[in-house]
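#struct-help
A.M.: can someone run this one for me? Single chain, 394 residues.
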Amino acid sequence: MTTIRILISLAIKKGWDMYQLDVNNAFLHGDLHEEVYMDIPPGLMVTDTRMICKLKKSLYGLKQASRQWYDKLAQFLYSRGYSHSTNDYSLFYRKIGSSLVFVAVCVDDVIITGTDIIEITSLKNSLHNEFKIKDLGRLQYFLGLEILYKDSGVIISQRKFTIDLLHEFDCSDCKSVSSPLESTVKLKAGEGILLTDPTYYRKLVGKLNFLTNTRMDIAFSVQYLSQFLQNPREPHLKVAYHVLRYLKNDPCLGIHLSNNADCSITTYCDSDWAACPDTRKSVSGYVVLMGDSPVSWKSKKQTTISLSSAKAEYRAIRKAVGELVWLERLLIELNLPCKLPISVFCDSQTAIHISKNPVFHERTKHIEVDCHFVREKKYKNDSSHSITSQQIIS
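D.P.: on it. Structure tokens below:
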């Protein structure tokens, strides 16, 4: 989804048209490279009941189906001079002189954008002749994302998905609240009565997780609820319903991708020290902006226990820097090299000092690997990975 958001943001900033295609019966186009047999389907009359069918083509339901469809589509695009991205295999591109065309694929949904309208038209015709596609015209609705075009750019939301979610869990008539999570809430894994049907909670949290593709305001709450999927209890479900009541406050809320020509990358990161009352692990969070448009964000519990808030903050920086290293490589493939250096804003003076201090000592030995990673990116002579750390006032 980060790649999709970046591609849409780039197209809006460059003024490129975006088109959406849908492939008919995508999984049926795949060629099988191994022997696969199936029982005689119901309704097919055969003389010998011991007979079985040997498949020559892929079918829906096969574990190989999605892989074989991708392979078939990739081979077709290769034949037209396209290459797949080494940073995201769902992205293909073709660069010849001033002609740029990008193809983003997710199962049977395809986005095409770029500078060369003639090549885009030719590609759509060739895809139709090869696979039978539906040309859905200008990009409007993709993977549950609704794209609303404005004079200042586009607004991406999941309005329909949010409204359907409220209906499904009977929260359409509930009283709305103004925050996704109360500051006093401290859930524990073993407190409360176990739910009789844990799949109900898992289904709800799974759908909330999908909603974070456009709602970064609930990212922290959703990762918090995701910690209790194994044995959900009544207090956990109550907080999940609180998130639904927050969504009811404005189900149309989404992200705004500006058409401002500024493509500089800026990152903000933070951590919540010892946030988990069971494990005392901290939570990292970051958001990456392209100009003034949010394109990547994450809230995730750290894998190890931080002995101080400074270490938790430093590990949050490492997460953000890791995302930036990948993002920089992706932007180069999109023909948009990052304007360097990239600024990473953190509100911990101690964490900033650790990134600048080349000496390891007693207070930093527990985060040596993270220190090596961030310092290398900060001081590397190769400017393509140059990153600066700055302090902001909270």
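A.M.: thanks! The chain has three domains: 2-143, 159-249, 260-391.
D.P.: also worth noting: The radius of gyration is 24 Å.
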